[in-house]
Design a protein that fits this description.
phosphoprotein; Killer Toxin P4, Chain A; glycoprotein; Phosphorylase Kinase, domain 1; 4 domains; 33% helix; alpha+beta; transmembrane helix
């Protein structure tokens, strides 16, 4: 079985590993070469047009300092296609070095081949005379295993496949602007964690990527069954797993892990036959157990240290100590604070109840929401939910301070935010001038962070479901604070399932899949955020947008301007004096991405925060927004769209208005 294997390249691998393991303590890290495959039945003549084309192609690849690049070169009727990709966690310096080496190594390894591929740990590069961009290629494939056996192969492989599948799912559908690369871990036993990685070339579609990865995952069985580590490399994608962290964790600051050479009792290579013949050959390079333990030790240590660094405060320690008692307010206290819910203290009224301003005995100002609805929920459940929501703490969220229960009466007590809600200023022709572009941009970013926190950083994964201008309050420094999150939870509207018969939301901010079918997800909030973003830029309400220039609503109007190449026309005339056009353009672009029809196309909140923070993140092209109505229909009620009635009540004096939510039966 070894016959085909024992070839020159294998010797090189062996030597290389030997050298790395025993003599090489790198000062400048070199890439780790793995394997080359050259087509032997498709060749070209020396000094042919193809050879020149290849030379040009390789130098073009070598000169591009990115982590993925494809190129096409034609010479005298011959065309050569090529690309390279670096592993997702490899930095550009290392990547470039690897690619340069590849472009030098490949022509000498494969002198006259019309098709070839070279793999390293850090990158791979391939070319061919046929166009292979955006297609899934699974051959040649290459398997590499860590020869150590695991103690309980059957259950280990189950855990592995499960984790690999999940990792592959993420890799195939990354957040917008991210690579098709993912890592994942799972605890196999108390002492063993399996680390997985999957990556596709970015030119593949999500489904092609997943299909490709499924192939490699299936081949793990073929190459690495019961082994402590392994990888399967295809020309379009690859996977790898080990019992130690072999990749740089993304979030971690670049803690330069001191030269982690893989504990290389590894290395094998594929024989020439297909799967069926099952010819796999592994070259075993010994390494001392001590070194292995040492390295694993370092990895664990550095991992632990990293963990400590980026552990997000989740309000556990502090607020878990604060018991229910501190959250509970006495009814008399509340009555006193609000002068018995006097009309003078009323701040606003919404779907969940009336909001009053209150001043506690110690002088603290609070906003008190007297819930009107019989929620059908027991006192204990109510308390539990309040306690959970009260733990959500973020500077862009209005804090829930506590609650009060007295008989049928249920009351929520919030931090008081002195300024008015965003809609009060934004949609008022006289006041909107207070919000110059810098302030609006700050508001946009703050809202994005607050929602991201609700979606991802809090332990709860709260979907707001009623994000809108009147639910964004502004403090004295014009920092936005989102209110009314967690209401669905407090009201026992099913929060965990993606489908509900009760719609909580406001017309104009609801995406079609939610308004029509009750389907919600984090993308529901993304849609509302997009509407809000476009409202902030334009200073116009989506829900009361009258036909302008042939567009029935704000979204269509924004889309039309975008398509016509004049997006800046959307900008609120009152701030046309001073703004940064790149920022405005980017915000419009992001807004349009958020309101796309297909929830899957809308970016996640984390990506949005990233897009707003970094201009180097490239944005995909938006597709037509949902609710794009051809002209001639009722501007406020698109076709095929029926539910309750439109209900945006923004009380004109809505100072610190806590809710204008609607609970509607479907
Ligand atoms: C070269 O060999 C591969 C299999 O190794 C085969 O699929 C392909 O058709 C061959 N190409 C030519 C031109 O013979
Ligand atoms: C890099 O890629 C660009 C296209 O993205 C191409 O025009 C250029 O020739 C390549 N080389 C360099 C050195 O940028
Ligand atoms: C890169 O690949 C894409 C398809 O994935 C193709 O449309 C594009 O033309 C290629 N670029 C070059 C420079 O060949
Ligand atoms: C890139 O990564 C290599 C190896 O992982 C490291 O030695 C080098 O310092 C890194 N360079 C930068 C600029 O981070
Ligand atoms: C490529 O890098 C390897 C080490 O990984 C080195 O041995 C080889 O000489 C390099 N090739 C070229 C052409 O620089
Ligand atoms: C690539 O080259 C081979 C061998 O010369 C030839 O049979 C094949 O048709 C070529 N493929 C394309 C797409 O030109
Ligand atoms: C792993 O198991 C195989 C057979 O199951 C055995 O031949 C091999 O020696 C074992 N390797 C180690 C390192 O224990
Ligand atoms: C992983 O996904 C494949 C299909 O892609 C499926 O056949 C297999 O059962 C899954 N394995 C686990 C453990 O989920
Ligand atoms: C694995 O276990 C450690 C502690 O034993 C825990 O911190 C970690 O979250 C677990 N990881 C997974 C993926 O379950
Ligand atoms: C290269 O890949 C082809 C197609 O998978 C395979 O038949 C051949 O044996 C490989 N060559 C080497 C040297 O591994
Ligand atoms: C590596 O694996 C081989 C074959 O299973 C075994 O003989 C050797 O002792 C192992 N070396 C180390 C350092 O574990």
């Amino acid at each position: 079985m070894t016959t085909s294997m024992v070839m020159a390249s294998s010797h090189i691998i062996f030597l290389l590993f030997f050298l790395i393991t025993f003599f090489h303590f790198p000062t400048t890290q070199a890439q780790t070469y793995l394997y080359t495959n050259c087509s032997s039945n498709k060749t070209f003549a020396a000094n042919s047009a193809f050879q020149f084309a290849r030379t040009t192609l390789l130098s073009s690849l070598a000169s591009n300092n990115t982590d993925f690049y494809n190129a096409t070169v034609s010479r005298g009727g011959d065309t050569v296609y090529g690309l390279f990709m670096c592993r997702g966690d490899v930095n550009l310096t290392m990547c470039h070095q690897c690619v340069v080496n590849a472009t030098q190594q490949l022509p000498s390894d494969c002198r006259a081949s019309k098709e070839a591929i070279i793999w390293y740990d850090e990158c791979f590069l391939r070319y061919s005379n046929r166009s292979f961009f955006s297609t899934v290629d699974t051959r040649p494939r290459y398997g590499l295993l860590n020869t150590g056996n695991v103690s309980n192969p059957a259950s280990f492989m189950r855990t592995l496949y499960d984790t690999m599948n999940k990792t592959a799912d993420v890799a195939a559908k990354p957040a917008v602007g991210r690579k098709k690369y993912a890592t994942g871990t799972a605890n196999f036993s108390a002492f063993q964690t399996v680390y997985c990685m999957a990556q596709c070339t970015p030119d593949l579609s999500p489904s092609d990527c997943r299909r490709c990865l499924s192939g490699t995952i299936g081949d793990l069985d073929w190459c690495c069954d019961g082994k402590q580590g392994g990888r399967v490399l295809y020309p379009s994608c690859y996977v790898r797993y080990e019992l130690y962290p072999f990749y740089q964790s993304e979030a971690s600051a670049p803690t330069p892990t001191p030269a982690i050479v893989p504990p290389t009792n590894t290395t094998g290579s594929q024989g020439k036959g297909g799967i069926s013949s099952g010819t796999i050959v592994a070259i075993v390079v010994p390494i001392s157990v001590a070194v292995l333990i040492f390295i694993v030790g370092i990895c664990c240590l550095s991992k632990r240290m990293r963990k400590n660094h980026d552990s997000v405060p989740e309000g556990k320690s502090a607020s878990e100590i604060s018991s229910m008692d501190s959250l509970q307010y006495d009814f008399n206290t509340i009555e006193e604070a609000t002068h018995k819910f006097s009309q003078d203290n009323k701040l606003g009224e919404g779907g969940f109840g009336v909001v009053y301003k209150g001043t506690l005995a110690n002088g603290q100002e609070v906003a008190v929401k007297r819930l009107s609805q019989g929620s059908g929920q027991g006192v204990q459940e109510f308390k539990n939910e309040v306690e959970v929501v009260a733990k959500l703490q973020h500077k862009n969220l209005v804090r829930l301070l506590g609650f009060c229960v007295q008989g049928e009466e249920k009351i929520l007590v919030y931090e008081y935010v002195p300024n008015k809600s965003l809609d009060y200023i934004l949609f008022d022709l006289e006041k909107q001038i207070q919000l110059d572009w810098t302030k609006r941009y700050k508001v946009v970013k703050g809202i994005a962070r607050g929602i991201k926190y609700l979606h991802e950083d809090s332990r709860l994964k709260i979907i707001h479901r009623d994000l809108k201008a009147s639910n964004v309050l502004l403090d004295n420094d014009m920092n936005p604070k989102i209110s009314d999150f967690g209401m669905a939870r407090i009201f026992m509207v099913d929060q965990t399932q993606g489908n509900t018969s009760r719609i909580v939301g406001t017309y104009g901010y609801m995406p079609p899949e939610y308004a029509m079918h009750g389907e919600f997800s984090v993308k529901t909030d993304v849609y509302s955020f997009g509407v809000l973003l476009l409202e902030i830029i334009s200073g116009k309400k989506n829900s009361s947008f009258y036909e302008i220039e042939g567009a029935p609503d704000l979204l269509s109007y924004a889309w039309k301007l975008w398509r016509d190449g004049e997006p800046l026309e959307l900008l609120d005339p009152t701030i046309r004096e001073s703004y940064t056009s790149t920022e405005v353009m980017r915000c419009i672009h992001i807004g349009l991405l958020c309101v796309q029809e297909d929830p899957a196309d809308r970016p996640f909140m984390a990506s949005i925060v990233l897009m707003l923070d970094s201009f180097s993140v490239t944005l995909p092209t938006p597709s037509q927004p949902a609710f794009f109505v051809q002209s001639g229909t009722d501007p406020n009620m698109p076709k095929d769209f029926k539910f309750g009635q439109s209900t945006t009540k923004s009380a004109p004096m809505s100072v610190n208005e806590m809710s204008v939510s609607e609970v509607m039966p479907r």
